[in-house]
C-alpha cells in the first residue's frame, strides 16, 4: 500500500509541476471569464438606438404605420426601456425613389461616428410591399443575424397590422392580437422546481460531457504515453524489481487521474463561481449585467456535481487502465495509435451520444447507454442534469461501472505484467490472449 | 555452509527459438564478490534478469536467500543495477532517489537522508536539485548506482556496473563495491572485462553460449587450468620472435598483444629454453616472467573467443 502511494505521489507531483499543466489549468478559467465578459463588451454597442430612414414609395402611406411600430420597439420589456430605432419617414414616388434612396445610402454607416445626419440603415418600402411583403433594407448591421431577424419581425408586425386594418379590423384589436407569446422554461425534477431554465440544463449537460471527453482523451493518452516513456527509458526494469505490475498500474492510473481531477476541480469550481458571481464580475468590468447574463455559465446543482465527479472518477480510471494496457503492449507512441483508436472510439461514441440524449434524455437509447460502463460516464450526468433519473438506475449503473473498472484493471494488469518488459516486438492478438491467461 | 544468497538450478530460457540460457546452474554464497563473466551475448544479462525474476525461466528454478518467493517480495534486501540504465529524465535527482527508496519500502524521511549521504559520497551533491536529464551520462549512472544501494541491501546485483565510466569514476564505483563486500554483504556483478574481475572477485563463473564453462574461486580456476605460462614484454626487434612463438614444440598457445604477449608453454617445454631462444635471436625483452594464467587466457582457451570481441573465426585465437 505504501508503495502504491509512492507511485501515486510521484505521478501526481511530477505531472502537476509541469508548465503545461499549470498553463492549461489557469487558461481555461481565464477563457471562461472572457466568455462571460467578451460578449458583453462586444455587445455593449448592440443596445444602441439605431437611426433608420424609411423611404416610403408605397404610394399608400405605408411609411407611417411601419415607422410607428418600429419606434415602439424597445430593448427589453422594462418600463422606460431604450427604443430600438429612431425613425424618420421620407415620402417618395416611383420616379424619385432611386434618387432619395441613394442620397440616404450615401449618408449611411456614419451614425456610429455621431454625425447627426448619419443613418444606420435605410428601409425602402416599394409600391408592392404591402401585397407581396417584399422590401429592402440597406444598413451597416445587415450581417448581424439577431438584428435582422428582429427587424424582420418588427416590419412583419407592422405590415400585418396595416393589412388587417385595411380589412376593417380595429387597430386596438390588432395590437392586442399581435402580442407575442413569451415562453419561460423551468426544469422540474422529482416534482420540484429546480430553478434552472431549460437553456441552463442544456449548457450544463453539454459542458460536462465536453469536460469528460476532453479529460479522458488528454489524461488517458497521458497515461499511455507515460507507460511508453517508462519502457523506452528502461526505468521499468528497476521498478519491476521492487513493484508488482498491479501496484505500478494502479499507482499510475490513480496518480494521473488525481492530477486530472485536480484540474477538473479547479475548472468546474471556477465555472461554479462564475455562474453565481458572473453578473457581479461583469458589473465590475463595466459590462451591463443584462448583456453578461445571456452568456453566463449556469450554476450547478450540488447533487449533479456529486454524480458528475463520481462518474468522472470511475470513467477516468476505466479508460486510464485501458490506455495503460495499450501503452504496455507497444514500444512507440506511433504503435499505440492502432490500438488506442478502439478506446478513443468508445470515448467518441459516448460523447456524441450526449447530443442525441439532449433531445430525448429518457429514451431507450439513453437508458441503455447509461448501463454500459464505457458510455455511462458520459450519458448518466447528462441525463441527471436534464431529467430525474430513478435512484435504482443510478445505483445499477454505478455498480456495473465499478465491476467493469475492476475487470479492466485486472485485465490491464495481466497485459502490463508481460508487456512492460517486452521490447522490440509488438504482440499479436494471439500472444496478447496468452499474456492475459498466463 | 549457509544457504546460498543466490541459487540458480539448471535454468533454461529460450527466446523465440534461440536458447539464451541453457541448463545453467550457479550458487552465490553470502559475503564476497561473485563475478559473472562472459563475452557479449553469452547470456549474462538474461541470467541476471532470471535471478531478479524479471524473466521467468522456461525450466529450472531460481531461489534467493533460500526462498523461492522471488525478488519482488525480497526487494528490500536486494539492490539491482540493470544493464539498461533508466531514470525518469524530468525528475529532480533527489526526488528520484527518494522515490526509488520508497519503492524499496524505506520511509520518505529516511530515504531523503540516505539519498543526500549517497550524493555527497559520490561527489554529486551539488546536482541534487537538478533534473536528471541535465546530468552527464556518467553522473546519471552514479545516481542509478546510489538508487540501487540506497536501502542497504544484503545482496547487490550489478549488471555491467563499470561500463561507460571514465577511469576516475570507475575507481570510485569499484571502491564502493569492494566496501560493500568488506561489510559482509554479497555482490554479484557481470562483466566482460577479465582484468577487472580478476582483481576484484573472490569467485567467478565464466559463461558462454548460455552455459557455464568454468566456475569456482579465482585461485581454483587458475590451478585447474594448469600449464606453465609466460608473460613477455618486447622492447625492440619484435619480429625476430615470430618464428619462435610459432614453434609448436615450445609454445602451446599465444595470446599476442603486439608489444606484449602471454604464452602457454607446450607440454615438456621449459621456460628457460624459450628465454635462450629469444636471446639468441636478439629479441629485445622488457619483461620475461613465469606467471599464473590470467583469466583472460583461461577464458580464451575455454571459450575459444576473445571475451571483449565478437567471436573470431575458428583457429585464429587457438
What descriptors fit this protein?
heterodimer, A: alpha/beta, D-Maltodextrin-Binding Protein, domain 2, 2 domains, 6 strands, 66% helix, 6% strand, B: 318 residues, Rossmann fold, Alpha-Beta Plaits, four-stranded antiparallel sheet, 13 strands, 32% helix, globular, disordered C terminus
What does this structure look like?
The complex is a heterodimer of chains A (about 450) and B (about 325). Chain A has about 450 residues and is α/β, with parallel strands linked by helices. Chain A folds into two domains: about 280 residues, no CATH class; about 130 residues, D-Maltodextrin-Binding Protein, domain 2 (3-Layer(aba) Sandwich). In chain A, about 65% of the residues lie in helices and about 5% in strands. Chain A is built from 17 helices and six strands. In chain A, strands 2-1-3-4 form a four-stranded mixed beta sheet, sandwiched between helices. In chain A, strand 5 and strand 6 form a beta hairpin. The mean pLDDT of chain A is about 80. Chain B is built from ten helices and 13 strands. A six-stranded mixed beta sheet of chain B has the order 5-6-7-3-8-9, with helices on both faces. In chain B, strands 11-12-10-13 form a four-stranded antiparallel beta sheet, covered by helices on one side. Chain B is globular. Chains A and B meet through helix 1 and helix 9 of A and helix 2 and helix 4 of B.
Amino acid at each position: 500500500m505504501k508503495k502504491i502511494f509512492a507511485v501515486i505521489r510521484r505521478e501526481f507531483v511530477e505531472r502537476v509541476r509541469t508548465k503545461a499543466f499549470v498553463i492549461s489549468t489557469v487558461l481555461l478559467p481565464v477563457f471562461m471569464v472572457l466568455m462571460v465578459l467578451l460578449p458583453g463588451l462586444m455587445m455593449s454597442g448592440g443596445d444602441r438606438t439605431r437611426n433608420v430612414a424609411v423611404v416610403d414609395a408605397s404610394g399608400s402611406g405605408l411609411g407611417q404605420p411601419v415607422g410607428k411600430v418600429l419606434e415602439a420597439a424597445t430593448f427589453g420589456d422594462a418600463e422606460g426601456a431604450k427604443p430600438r430605432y429612431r425613425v424618420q419617414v421620407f415620402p417618395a414616388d416611383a420616379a424619385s425613389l432611386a434618387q432619395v434612396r441613394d442620397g440616404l445610402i450615401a449618408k449611411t454607416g456614419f451614425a456610429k461616428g455621431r454625425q447627426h445626419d448619419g443613418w444606420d440603415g435605410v428601409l425602402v418600402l416599394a409600391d408592392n410591399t404591402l401585397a407581396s411583403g417584399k422590401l429592402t433594407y440597406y444598413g451597416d448591421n445587415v450581417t448581424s443575424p439577431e438584428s435582422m431577424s428582429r427587424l424582420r419581425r418588427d416590419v412583419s408586425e407592422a405590415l400585418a397590422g396595416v393589412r388587417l386594418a385595411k380589412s376593417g379590423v380595429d387597430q386596438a384589436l390588432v395590437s392586442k392580437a399581435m402580442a407575442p407569446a413569451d415562453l419561460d422554461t423551468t426544469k422540474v425534477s422529482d416534482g420540484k422546481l429546480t430553478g434552472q431554465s431549460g437553456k441552463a440544463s442544456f449548457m450544463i449537460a453539454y459542458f460536462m460531457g465536453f469536460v469528460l471527453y476532453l479529460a479522458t482523451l488528454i489524461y488517458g493518452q497521458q497515461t499511455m504515453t507515460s507507460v511508453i516513456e517508462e519502457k523506452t527509458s528502461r526505468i521499468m526494469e528497476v521498478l519491476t524489481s521492487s513493484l508488482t505490475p498491479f501496484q505500478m498500474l494502479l499507482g499510475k492510473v490513480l496518480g494521473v487521474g488525481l492530477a486530472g481531477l485536480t484540474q477538473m476541480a479547479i475548472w468546474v469550481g471556477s465555472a461554479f463561481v462564475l455562474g453565481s458571481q458572473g453578473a457581479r464580475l461583469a458589473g465590475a468590468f463595466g459590462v451591463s449585467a443584462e448583456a453578461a447574463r445571456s452568456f453566463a455559465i449556469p450554476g450547478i446543482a450540488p447533487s449533479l456535481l456529486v454524480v458528475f465527479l463520481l462518474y468522472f472518477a470511475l470513467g477516468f480510471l476505466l479508460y486510464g487502465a485501458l490506455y495503460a494496457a495499450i501503452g504496455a503492449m507497444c514500444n512507440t507512441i506511433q504503435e499505440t495509435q492502432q490500438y488506442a483508436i478502439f478506446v478513443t472510439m468508445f470515448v467518441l461514441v459516448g460523447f456524441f451520444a450526449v447530443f442525441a440524449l439532449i433531445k430525448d434524455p429518457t429514451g431507450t437509447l439513453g437508458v441503455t447507454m447509461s448501463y454500459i460502463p464505457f458510455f455511462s460516464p458520459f450519458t448518466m450526468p447528462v441525463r441527471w442534469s436534464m431529467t430525474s433519473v430513478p435512484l435504482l438506475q443510478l445505483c445499477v449503473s454505478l455498480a456495473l461501472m465499478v465491476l467493469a473498472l475492476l475487470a479492466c484493471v485486472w485485465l490491464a494488469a495481466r497485459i502490463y505484467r508481460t508487456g512492460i518488459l517486452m521490447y522490440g516486438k509488438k504482440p499479436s492478438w494471439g500472444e496478447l490472449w496468452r499474456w492475459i491467461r498466463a | 555452509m549457509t544457504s546460498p544468497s543466490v541459487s540458480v538450478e539448471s535454468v533454461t530460457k529460450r527466446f523465440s527459438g534461440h536458447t539464451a540460457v541453457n541448463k545453467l546452474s550457479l550458487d552465490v554464497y553470502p559475503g564476497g564478490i561473485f563475478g559473472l563473466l562472459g563475452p557479449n551475448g553469452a547470456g549474462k544479462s538474461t541470467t541476471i534478469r532470471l535471478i531478479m525474476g524479471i524473466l521467468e525461466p522456461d525450466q529450472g528454478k531460481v531461489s534467493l536467500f533460500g526462498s523461492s518467493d522471488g525478488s519482488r517480495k525480497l526487494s528490500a534486501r536486494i539492490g539491482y543495477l540493470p544493464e539498461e540504465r533508466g531514470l525518469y529524465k524530468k525528475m529532480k535527482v533527489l526526488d528520484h532517489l527518494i522515490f526509488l527508496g520508497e519503492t524499496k519500502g524505506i520511509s520518505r524521511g529516511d530515504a531523503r537522508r540516505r539519498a543526500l549521504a549517497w550524493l555527497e559520497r559520490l561527489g554529486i551533491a551539488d546536482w541534487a536539485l537538478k533534473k536528471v536529464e541535465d546530468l552527464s551520462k556518467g553522473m546519471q549512472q552514479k545516481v542509478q548506482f546510489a538508487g540501487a544501494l540506497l536501502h542497504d541491501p544484503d545482496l547487490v546485483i550489478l549488471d555491467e556496473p563499470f561500463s561507460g565510466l571514465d577511469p576516475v569514476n570507475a575507481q570510485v564505483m569499484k571502491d564502493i563495491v569492494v566496501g560493500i563486500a568488506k561489510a559482509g554483504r554479497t555482490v554479484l556483478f557481470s562483466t566482460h572485462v577479465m582484468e577487472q574481475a580478476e582483481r576484484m572477485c573472490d569467485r567467478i563463473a565464466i559463461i558462454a553460449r548460455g552455459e557455464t564453462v568454468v566456475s569456482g574461486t579465482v585461485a581454483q580456476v587458475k590451478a585447474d587450468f594448469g600449464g606453465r605460462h609466460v608473460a613477455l614484454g618486447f622492447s625492440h626487434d619484435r619480429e625476430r620472435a615470430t618464428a619462435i612463438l610459432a614453434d609448436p614444440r615450445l609454445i602451446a598457445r599465444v595470446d599476442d598483444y603486439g608489444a606484449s604477449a602471454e604464452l602457454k608453454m607446450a607440454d615438456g617445454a621449459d621456460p628457460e629454453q624459450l628465454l635462450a631462444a629469444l636471446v639468441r635471436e636478439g629479441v629485445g625483452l622488457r619483461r620475461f616472467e613465469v606467471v599464473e594464467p590470467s583469466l583472460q587466457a583461461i577464458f580464451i582457451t575455454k571459450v575459444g573467443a576473445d571475451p571483449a570481441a565478437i567471436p573470431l573465426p575458428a583457429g585464429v585465437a587457438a
